[in-house]
């Protein structure tokens, strides 16, 4: 019985923390669009290329990565 005096308030604090985290995520728009992320893998994306300035400033010149 004495353990309940400790575990119930701890459970309430943990529940309040997760409720706070959920509300802040909801307000920031985390859950606005739940459909489009699963379709992103079907679209081709161009990866960013290195700028010419970083390639010319390297002392070894452009290197090839395998």
TrEMBL record:
Entry keyword annotation includes Transmembrane: yes
UniProt keywords, alphabetically: Membrane, Transmembrane, Transmembrane helix
Residue ranges with Polar residues bias: 50-66
Regions crossing the membrane: 6-26
PANTHER family given in the database record: FIXS PROTEIN
Region (Disordered): 47-66
The protein, known as: Cbb3-type cytochrome oxidase assembly protein CcoS
Coiled-coil regions listed: none
The UniProt record lists the keyword Transmembrane: yes
């Amino acid at each position: 019985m004495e353990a309940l005096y400790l575990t119930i308030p701890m459970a309430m604090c943990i529940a309040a923390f997760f409720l706070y985290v959920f509300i802040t995520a909801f307000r920031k728009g985390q859950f606005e669009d739940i459909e489009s992320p699963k379709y992103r893998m079907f679209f081709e994306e161009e990866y960013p290329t290195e700028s010419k300035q970083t390639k010319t400033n390297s002392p070894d010149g452009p290197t090839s990565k395998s």
